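Sorry, explain these tokens?

***
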Amino acid sequence: MLCVMLPFTLMLNSVIFGSLYFLDWQLFALATIITGVGVCIDFILCGFVAVLMKKRFPLEKDVGRKLVFMILSFWLFTTLFLYLLFRGYEWIRLYGYSFNESAFIWSCIAFGIVNVFLTFLMEGVAGYESWKDSMDETEKLSKAYNQSRLLGLKSQVNPHFLFNSLNSLSSLISEDEQGAEKFLDEMSKVYRYMLRHEVDQLVTLETELKFVDSYYYLLRVRYGDALQIVNAVHENDKFHDIPPLTLQVIIENSFTLNALNKNAPLQIFIQSNGTGVLEIRNSIQPKIITDNINYEAGLDNLVNKYYLLTHHPLTISETKTERCISIPLITQKAEVEV
């Protein structure tokens, strides 16, 4: 508005009053103020229409209709503004001015051309900004997704997890051959899932829960009754989608940060009520961590990735005794925001 107000004001007043506008300083000051205020009002009204049209036609396929409505609205407001300005100076008889029809028509044509030019210019700028934001968001998503894949790969070859699993398997072989066979079968399911869905963006919640069952079996052999995972997911929600290894990241974060004890088991509840929101609750039993490792990195990455994928936040709430992570499930028909 500041950029267009002064040149438009000077141009209009020179058309209305001619050379007298620049020769008489009182006329120059008064007409500049009146016309400048009018230009600002017209600019604000056009800006209001532009915002309204942007909200009314947000999709790229509606750009044509949006531009037509915007140009027609701008032309209507500008023509009305020019008519009131020309007639207004005649009504107040400012320096004997009388309505000049030819000057009014040419002003309408000139401002109409300027309106069309500015409309396309601003739409082009807005389109470029939208494209730039989309590219930045895609880059962030790609970065988060690659980080997630890296974390997934790390969990596949995590020496601690692999060592503990093999150690548990070794103990079972000497004590319970059938149990060892079952453990080996579940362990193969865990690693097969990680490898199979390494590049997938989404899997069904039902598929993820089957993986959690196998993953929990390995943890239960290691921790026994000190870790309890309860699945209470509504059947209707199992057909929704979720990024793979989401639950594994959350479960691993829970038992890494909290103490496990048979007398005070760490409880993790995976539940939903059919509304499309999955909740993972775990009791808080903080333990002393001496390793200089960012154990929340996986969870932070998951939060960022989920928001970039869906534009819906993954929320985390915490009390003194419980942490709750709420995940909005993705419907099969919904498009991922990539």
